[in-house]
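Q: Entry one of two.
A:
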Amino acid sequence: MFPVLSPLYAQTDALEMFRLASQKMALGKTDEAIELYKKGLEIKRDSKEAWYNLGVAYGKKGLVAKEVEAYQKALELDQNYGNALFNLGLALRDLGQKEKALEVFNKLLLLEQNTPEVWNNIGVLKLEMGDTKGAQEAFLKAIEMGAQSADPYFNLAIVLVRLADAEKDAKAQERLLKEAMDLCDQALARDQRHFRVAYNKGVVAHRLGLKEKAVEAYKLALSIKPDYKPALYNLAVELNEIGKCDEALATFEAYLRIAVSDPKETAFVQGAKAQVERLHERCGQGTR
C-alpha cells in the first residue's frame, strides 16, 4: 500500500504547485499555470493569493466569467483583498456589469485604496453609464492625486470634447476644446506612444481650425501605429485642405490599400476613392 500523505506534506505539495504555476505564468504558459493552480487549490483551498493568481490567468485567456469566480473565491477568504477587488471591478466591467463594477471600486475607496487608478476606473464606468459630470469629477480627482498614467488626462479630454459637443455658446465650446487639447499634450508627456491620444489631439486641433497641428498629431499617431485607419483618412483630408496635393493623394491611396476590404470602412472608402480621382486631376497626374 502507498503511504497516506500527512496534511503537512499535502500543504507542501500545494505550495510547490503554486510556485510552479507562477513560473509558468512568467513564461507565458498560461494553460499549464491554470492547471497547476487548480490542482494546488484542490489541496489548499484557503490560499487567497492562489485564487487571485488563477483569476489573473483566466483573464489572460479571456475567460472572464471564470476570472470573476476566482476573484470572488479570493474575496471569500479576505473581503478586503485590494488586488482581487481591483481586478474584479475590471472583469465585471468587461462582462458589462457596470453597476456591480462601480460598487467594487467604491468599496476600494472605503478601504483606503484611494488611488488615481481607482478614481480613473470610476470615471470610465461613469462615462460609460452616461454620468458625464460624475466622470469629470472622478478624472479630476485622479489628476489631483498625481496620476502618472496618461489615462486620466486623456479620459478627461474626452469628457471635455463631449461637453463641447453639447455647448451652444461658441466661446465656451472653444474654451473646452482648448482645454481638451492641453490635456492631450499632458497625456502625451506621460506616454509618448499613446496613439489614441495623438489621434484625438488631431481631431480636436481640426475642430479648432489648427490644421498644421492636426497634421502633426495625425502623423504622430501613425508613427506609433502605421495601420491606424482613422488617422490615415483624417490626415489625408487635412493635407488636402492645406493644399498639399501630392502628399494627400499618397495618404488617401495608403488608406485605401488597408481599408478597402474592411466593411466598417465602406463609407470612408467611397469618399477616399472620390478624393483620389479629384486629386489625380488636380496634381496633374491624370485619372486612373
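Q: Entry two of two.
A:
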Amino acid sequence: MTVNALLLGLDALTSALRVLVFVAGLAVAALAGLSYAVRTRRINPFNPVARTVRRSVDPLFAPVERRVVRAGGRPATAPWWALAAVVVLGIVLVSALGFVRQQLAMAAIALTSGGRGLVALLIVWTIGVLQLALFARVIASWFQSSAYSRWLRWAFVLTEWFLRPLRQVVPTLGMIDITPIVAYFVLRLVAGLVLTALA
C-alpha cells in the first residue's frame, strides 16, 4: 500500500468519524434532554414517556451517574456529563486521526527529501514532543497535580532541563510562572530557524 493510498484512507476514515460523532452527539443530546426532563419532573413521572425513559434510557446513563455521584454531583446532571464525554471523546478521536495523517504526510515528504528531510522530520517530532510535554505541565498546574505522578513524570523529565535556566531569566507574573509559555514559543522559534537552515 502506498503512502498516498494510506493518506486517502485516513481522510475517508476521518470524514466518516466526523459524521458518526455528530450523529452520536445528536442522539445522546436528545436522550440526555429526555432523561433530564424525567429526572427533574418536567415530564410527569407517571407519563408513558417517563416510564419508557426510566426503563430504556436511564440504564445507559447509569455508569456516568455513578461517577457523578461519587464525585459529589447531582444524579440529574449525569445525562449532560455523558453528552460532554461523547463530544470530548469525538473531538479527541478526530484530532488524533488528523495528527496521525499529518505525521505520515510529513514522513513521506521527508523520505523523498533525503538526509536533510529526515533530520528536519526528527527535529519537528522532537519539538512536537517537547511542546506536548509543556502543554501537559500547564494543564497539570491547573489541577495542582504532583510532578511525581506516574501520569506526569514524563513531562517534567522532558522539560525541566530547559525550564530551569529560563526561570532565572523570565520573571513571574505575580504567582503565575509563564516560563512554559515562553519555552513553547522559544521551541517554535528554534525549530523555524533550524528548518530554514536545512531547507
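A: Comment on entry two: The chain has a mean pLDDT of 85. Residues 3-39 form the longest helix (37 residues).
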